[in-house]
Amino acid sequence: MTAPLSPLATALAAVVATADRVRVPVEALRQAALAADLSLHGAPDARRRLLAAITELVDAGQVTLPAAGGTGWETAPRPALPRWVNRPAPQRPTEPARAPVSWHAALSWVPAFLAADRPSAGEVGLLRAVNAFLGHGGSRLVVPLRERSLQLTGEEKALDALSRGRLFIAGRLSLDLLSARRTSPPLARQRIGEGPVMLLVENWSTYESLGATLPTAGEVGAVVYSAGNTLSTVLSAVADSPPTALAYFGDLDVRGLEMPAAANRLTAELGLPPLTPAGVLYGLLLRHGQRDLVGTPPEPDRVRRAVEWLPAHLQTDVRELLAAGHRMAQEAVGLEVLTCTPTGVLQTVIGDA
């Protein structure tokens, strides 16, 4: 059993415990010792008594000392004192060993998958949750996928991507097994023609104007209203019937570019083609847009990252626009501009105007 600390060592221990750094200077300990024991003032053995109290902390495992013989020691006067002490890092609690899992018959493929396919923590967590779900009899009630996702993972959107990945290939998990079904919000969509591109548009007015003016013989087959910040939700709905190609047109501001750039990282998880900037329409916006001052310019690094999603030939102009604290609303490419734009220009939206 460890002996209790002396009053002087106890005072030093309090300094170590409340220090804002792991390395505690000996001067801080010296001042604490003088405050705790007034007899140390001017005492010839003060240095020895301070070292003895520090040694108590070392023996109790509350501090460690600098390496012997190095620059971490005051060698004169005697006895030598450490220039600092270190508070040991707290030991991480060891995780209890997991009991072997008895997998449900419908999950007999899981042990081989876990051994060979390097599953992510999210995949492992889902498999364990599904195992428990099936072990309790599953459910006869087929519910929306996000409701089942919340039940199994604690995150309502987790299965949006996981249910389109390798865990749900033939012979593994299925929506039937989870008693779940995909649901999607109703999409505002206009059929334009037979072109391969589905064009997502940030704002409603521009969605309407493009639907009225894009040529039926062009590359855009449908225009979809992406409703600003709901872009990821719209993409999840689109994934139920993936188009051949996806394009996007929104406002020229930092947030308006960050949204499709982030959504583009989601498309692969949803089994969709990349979300491509509608370069022709962004070119028209740069040509006809009104510069609106938004206040304090964004951080340069944020601007640089935001414009990287755009075609290379537009990046310089847009970077200068945003860096100056300006933006352009996509409504500038409205019905009047689109009506006056040659049909040949609007035959394609991915490229340069």
The overall pLDDT average reads 89
How much is the radius of gyration in Å? 33 Å
**Regarding CATH, which class of the largest domain?**
Alpha Beta
Question: Order of strands across the biggest sheet?
Answer: 7-9-8-10-11
| Count of individual helical segments | 16
- Number of discrete domains: 3
Instruction: Give the structural class.
Output: alpha/beta
Strand content: 5-15%
Largest sheet: 5 strands, mixed
Could you give the count of β-strands?
13
Indicate the CATH architecture of the largest domain: 3-Layer(aba) Sandwich
Outline, from the CA principal axes?
elongated
Task: Write a structural description.
The protein has 16 helices and 13 strands. It has three domains: 7-86; 105-181; 189-346, Dna Topoisomerase Vi A Subunit, Chain: A, domain 2 (3-Layer(aba) Sandwich), CATH 3.40.1360.10. The radius of gyration is 33 Å and the shape is elongated. With 353 residues, it is α/β, with parallel strands linked by helices. The protein has helices at 7-18, 26-36, 46-59, 110-116, 121-135, 145-153, 158-162, 175-178, 204-213, 231-238, 254-267, 279-288, 300-307, 312-323, 335-340, 343-346; strands spanning 23-25, 73-74, 81-82, 84-86, 143-144, 180-181, 189-191, 197-201, 220-225, 245-249, 275-277, 292-293, 326-327. The longest helix is centred in the middle third of the chain and has 15 residues, at 121-135. The strands form five sheets. A five-stranded mixed β-sheet has the order 7-9-8-10-11. α11 crosses α13 and α13 (300-307) packs antiparallel against α14 (312-323).
